[in-house]
């Protein structure tokens, strides 16, 4: 049973049980509490808390999805039999539609009847002084003929957000005959965890389940590990047989992860998701292989399911990083060779000077035993010290304000980043004007987020924007950049400013921080053009902006996708 069949069977099974099928969201999430999308439930968090209504948005209180997911915590373990970074999470969710009985019965039926597989044992929450034992789940499993049941504590069978508030509750996990780790985790959200640690019972409990496709494929295809499945085997076959098996697995895993991150608009940088991407790319480059064939195979394997995979974009970004890294790689490896041992300080110096990330320094095939004493925690502390020095330097230079710029919408650490976000900010104004010209006045901003890596722009629009329309928007923005239009502003009383025809957040729109926009008695109206009356773009805004559009540089849209019901999202860069 190949992976495409498993996906189809899963979706069709839950569709037949009245679940609305929801497409995967991006690997780059809306949720500020996480760097990348780590689970299927992330796009549904507001439905569990009651902020959004699933019946209204999906036509059902129950949903199912196959979610692209990424966990950075497993990067160091990649190469063994079970760990990977990018994975697909099969999930079914209920927001008051059903609870433990149905969720357990669905999981049992899908695995044993639909797929004909055998459950080895299940685990349930044994209870503690705060939360009672989950005897209900245990009884349901016994009624289905599953008698091998293990009772475990909070660390194993209670799911909750780490360090933040949110829905949580006991879990039951399913283990299969030929798999050492669990294949399916059923979370029963019964409580809400408050910042002070208080657990409050939810008015409407819900079910949140997640099953890794890679692990399911291992069981269904009767393989010993995930790397023998049809998701990995074709990639491993392209990698030089002379390389150690662990290295081959690292290259295959990172090749998948890099392809999906780039196709979701991430570009390599020294922070955030861009830093994760750069680490993966550079580890691949150090180990070396025929990358073009590898990426082409990733797109071949996944292209039917994930249409957003863009081989040309993947190869372009990888080659740019490869070219940049090759300039210092040889020197870095030469310096590494001179060291008798690598500790946190010397390791970070190799990273800072030559761009050798932690994973490369720890790699036994590259460093031997030199980095045996190096651990990620100490390395990250050195990184934090470096950032603190940089921030202190920026504060000294720019008046002691921490981040050089942090408006909620725009963020910049230093003068270099400030120049980039200023260009991107003006480009975002140009993009909104171009979107309205190409798509019509239905387009209204719903917030933006601008960093030195990219601009992210959300807007109200009822359908997917076609590739032809995206091209028109991109070309129109670049046309206005080439015209070298002046960028100016006037400060006006609020009601007078509204009469200029400038765009601003209405009751429908939201500010970058997520709340309704609030304006003072006077506002700045930024306009792009010779004068306010004939300007091509007019918006209420606090700045900063370039003085002429030619300073923006070449504008490029990386990705257009759904952010939520009725809201589209564009990620773009300037070069």
TrEMBL record:
The EC number on file is 6.1.1.7
Keywords for the protein's UniProt record, in alphabetical order:
Aminoacyl-tRNA synthetase, ATP-binding, Ligase, Nucleotide-binding, Protein biosynthesis, RNA-binding, tRNA-binding
Domain of life where this protein originates = Bacteria
Give the Pfam families listed for this entry: tRNA-synt_2c, tRNA_SAD
Q: What SMART domains does this protein's entry cite?
A: tRNA_SAD
Keyword Repressor in record: no
Question: SUPFAM superfamilies this protein is in?
Answer: Class II aaRS and biotin synthetases, Putative anticodon-binding domain of alanyl-tRNA synthetase (AlaRS), ThrRS/AlaRS common domain
* GO cellular component term of the entry, any: cytosol
Q: Which intervals hold domain Alanyl-transfer RNA synthetases family profile? A: 1-575
Enzyme class, top EC level, equals ligase
Sample GO molecular function, one term: tRNA binding
Q: Which CDD domains match?
A: AlaRS_core (cd00673)
* Protein family per UniProt: Belongs to the class-II aminoacyl-tRNA synthetase family.
What is the protein name for this chain? alanine--tRNA ligase
Q: Which organism is it from?
A: Candidatus Doudnabacteria bacterium RIFCSPHIGHO2_01_FULL_46_14
């Amino acid at each position: 049973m190949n992976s495409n069949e498993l996906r189809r069977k899963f979706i069709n099974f839950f569709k037949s049980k009245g679940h609305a099928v929801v497409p995967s969201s991006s690997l780059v999430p809306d949720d500020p509490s996480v760097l990348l999308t780590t689970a299927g439930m992330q796009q549904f968090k507001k439905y569990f808390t009651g902020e959004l209504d699933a019946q209204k948005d999906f036509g059902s209180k129950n949903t199912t999805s196959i979610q692209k997911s990424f966990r950075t915590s497993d990067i160091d373990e990649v190469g063994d039999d079970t760990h990977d970074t990018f994975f697909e999470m099969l999930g079914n969710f209920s927001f008051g539609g059903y609870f433990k009985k149905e969720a357990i019965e669905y999981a049992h039926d899908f695995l044993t009847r639909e797929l004909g597989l055998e459950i080895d044992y299940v685990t349930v929450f044994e209870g503690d002084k705060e939360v009672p034992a989950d005897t209900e789940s245990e009884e349901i499993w016994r009624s289905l003929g599953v008698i091998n049941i293990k009772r475990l504590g909070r660390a194993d069978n209670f799911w909750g957000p780490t360090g933040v508030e949110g829905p949580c509750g006991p879990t039951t996990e399913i283990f299969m005959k030929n798999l050492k780790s669990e294949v399916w985790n059923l979370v029963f959200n019964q409580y809400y965890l408050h910042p002070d640690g208080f657990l409050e019972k939810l008015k409407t409990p819900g079910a949140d389940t997640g099953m890794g496709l890679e692990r399911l494929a291992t069981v269904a295809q009767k393989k010993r590990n995930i790397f023998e499945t049809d998701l990995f085997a074709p990639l491993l076959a392209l990698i030089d047989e002379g390389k150690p098996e662990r290295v081959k697995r690292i290259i295959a895993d990172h090749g998948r992860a890099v392809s999906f991150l780039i196709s979701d608009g991430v570009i390599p940088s020294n922070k955030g998701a861009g830093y994760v991407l750069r680490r993966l790319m550079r580890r691949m480059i150090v180990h070396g292989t025929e990358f073009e064939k590898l990426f082409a195979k990733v797109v071949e394997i996944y292209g039917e399911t994930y249409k957003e995979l863009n081989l040309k974009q993947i190869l372009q970004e990888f080659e740019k990083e490869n070219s940049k890294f090759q300039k210092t790689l040889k020197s870095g490896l030469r310096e590494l060779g001179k060291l008798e041992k690598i500790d946190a300080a010397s390791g970070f110096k190799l990273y800072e000077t030559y761009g050798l990330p932690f994973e490369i320094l720890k790699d036994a095939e590259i460093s031997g035993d030199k980095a045996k004493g190096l651990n990620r925690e100490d390395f990250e502390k050195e990184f934090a010290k470096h950032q603190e020095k940089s921030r202190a330097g920026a504060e000294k230079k720019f008046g002691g304000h921490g981040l050089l710029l942090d408006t909620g919408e725009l963020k910049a650490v230093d003068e270099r980043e400030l120049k980039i976000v200023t260009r991107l900010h003006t480009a975002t104004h140009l993009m909104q004007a171009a979107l309205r010209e190409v798509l019509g006045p239905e387009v209204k901003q719903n917030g933006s987020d601008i960093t030195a890596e990219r601009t992210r722009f959300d807007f109200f629009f009822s359908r997917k924007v076609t590739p032809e329309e995206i091209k028109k928007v991109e070309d129109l923005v670049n046309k206005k950049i080439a015209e070298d239009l002046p960028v100016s502003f006037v400060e006006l009383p609020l009601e007078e400013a509204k009469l200029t025809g400038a765009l601003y957040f209405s009751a429908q729109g939201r500010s970058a921080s997520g709340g309704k926009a609030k304006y003072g008695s006077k506002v700045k109206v930024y306009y792009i053009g010779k004068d306010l009356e004939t300007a091509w773009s007019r918006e209420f805004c606090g700045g900063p902006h370039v003085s002429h559009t030619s300073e923006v540089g070449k504008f490029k849209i990386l990705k257009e996708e759904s952010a939520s019901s009725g809201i589209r999202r564009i990620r773009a860069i300037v070069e």
